[in-house]
Amino acid sequence: MSLEDTQASEMESTIDTASVTSESTGGTGESVIETENVDVWYSDTQALDDITMEIPEQQVTALIGPSGCGKSTFLRCINRMNDLIESARIEGEIRLRGKNVYDDDVDPVALRRSVGMVFQEPNPFPKTIYDNVAYGLRVQGKDDNLDEKVEDALRRAALWEEVNDQLDSSGLDLSGGQQQRLCIARAIAPDPDVILMDEPASALDPVATSKIEDLIEDLASEYTVAIVTHNMQQAARISDKTAVFLTGGKLVEFGDTEKIFENPEHQRVEDYITGKFG
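^ thats the sequence. predicted structure below, dont judge the formating
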């Protein structure tokens, strides 16, 4: 076994066995992700300022706020995508089931196997539909019963009925909404613990957006989902928890979505939600 495989195995074992108790309601009552005093800089510019919050298991947590307030930066910290940005500097702790993902013994590649990500623009590989979904499974050596796993992922992504007779066709030939669901199928095929979504429906038409929203709600029965969205109505429709980030990379309010939208504690949050600024 290679060093990378050993690190991946250790990381996945840690994720599987550790748990953190949470007071949040719904799901299983556990926090999957906990952040404590997280600060992020890009060179000398601070993007996040002292972020402390918990993301509960098997719920949808929406991250909302105006452009440039740090939502996507926060999302990218969870699976260490910001490691790929040379100017990024991160302080504080982000714990996945009790394990700080920035500990020296954590392999980022193994982490990203447990924390999948879906981006704003659909980005299928220039491969067949089948090979797109199978890619992560093959990389991880989980290629036994591959046909069944590919079909299962496509079914869970609500795409199987539309593509089951064209699995050998290019994923690039699908419509925008189908491509995004293909990317979701690719993300869930290796069975991650958490799915991060960065405005997954912003480039889609209303019909495709509705399908993605329905899919996100279904996925929350199996996975912990964190989604960045600029769409207030979307956040209100599909999320259980909402985090409101405002200018300066500050987390101003976090709690049950219904309370955030109907009776927020902070005037700045109410002003943002009602469109008085942002």
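The longest strand covers residues 31-42.
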